[in-house]
Amino acid sequence: MSIIYCWFSSIVALFHYCKEIIISCALMKETLKYLAGVAGPSGYGSNSTAEQVTQDCSSFLPPHLTAIVTGATSGIGAETARVLAKRGVRVVLPARDLKKAAQVKEDIQREVPKADIILLEIDLSSLPSINRFCTEFLSLGLPLNILINNAGKFSQRLEYSEDKMEMTFATNYLGHFLLTEMLLEKMIDTAAQTGIEGRIVNVSSVIHSWVKRDSFCFNQMVNPKSYNGTRAYAQSKLANILHVKEMARELKARKAKVSINAAHPGIVKTGITRDHKGFITDSLFFIASKLLKSTSQGASTTCYLALSPKIEGVSGKYFADCNESHCSGLANDEAEAQKLWKQTRVLICRRLRASVA
């Protein structure tokens, strides 16, 4: 019996060893494809820029499209707004800092003089502010074809919003949830009247896969007993994907001509400074530069999801490098998505009533 047990144990160990090798080889293959910028089924890859992935759209894009892009005062959001404007889309920039937004508008119109850019004030961590923004936007009587929930907050220390909710979760997830809810009927109506599919894009991150099921607790995310900035950010990005999954199901049930998808932009280059010179340090910075994306490469997946005819009718999916990709098992959990949806709506309704009172 002991010989049989040892033999069986050896087979199991060998199986796990082979499995690890296969996983490692698959990861190595994906990494090499990423570094080389190998194009996926969409025809684009990690090296593709936002301008490249939307270049072919220009000739057949319907006129008078309107997009709202949050977090567009810098980085990926500003590049997304620039490229959409370049493709003839009217762009609404909700911003907490209107001075920064005005500078982005000026920069875009310097390149695209006829660009139609509208600035409106918003604080995505504040539910009343989102309410005011939506009321103001809807009063303009404009159509709404594209909603890009791009703004992101990463807080190193525990902070609370004016609604007494943890700041990262409030900004990245709860704020965008309410914004989408309040603008959804306008998007559905616009799509029905024009026959043009509405597009919602939630900018997420591969870091969502770091979240374990036992640490994804709604009440703890809203009001954590202990705080870790990276964990809070990852949780908010997981929530963004679950929002996509449940909303796609709701939209399908309503037979609405509106799609919603999640995008991982990749890790974008920042202003890294070198304090030390040398062969090893230079080599490390060289390797890092190959792994990081430029701002335009980072904005490519968002712009692809917003404008490409190739994903007409595709909804509830997770994209990276302009191609459909795999998200975590937890992000694909339909029951978890429905539970989060219900908890979020109850909380937001309660907080909005409290703010009015």
UniProtKB/TrEMBL annotation:
Pfam families xref list: adh_short
SUPFAM superfamilies, A to Z: NAD(P)-binding Rossmann-fold domains
Coiled-coil residue spans: none
UniProt keyword annotations, A-Z: Oxidoreductase
Keyword Methyltransferase attached: no
Keyword check for Oxidoreductase: yes
Gene Ontology MF terms in the entry: oxidoreductase activity
Domain of life where this protein originates: Eukaryota
Family label: Belongs to the short-chain dehydrogenases/reductases (SDR) family.
Protein name: Short-chain dehydrogenase TIC 32, chloroplastic
Highest classification ranks of the organism: Eukaryota, Viridiplantae, Streptophyta, Embryophyta, Tracheophyta
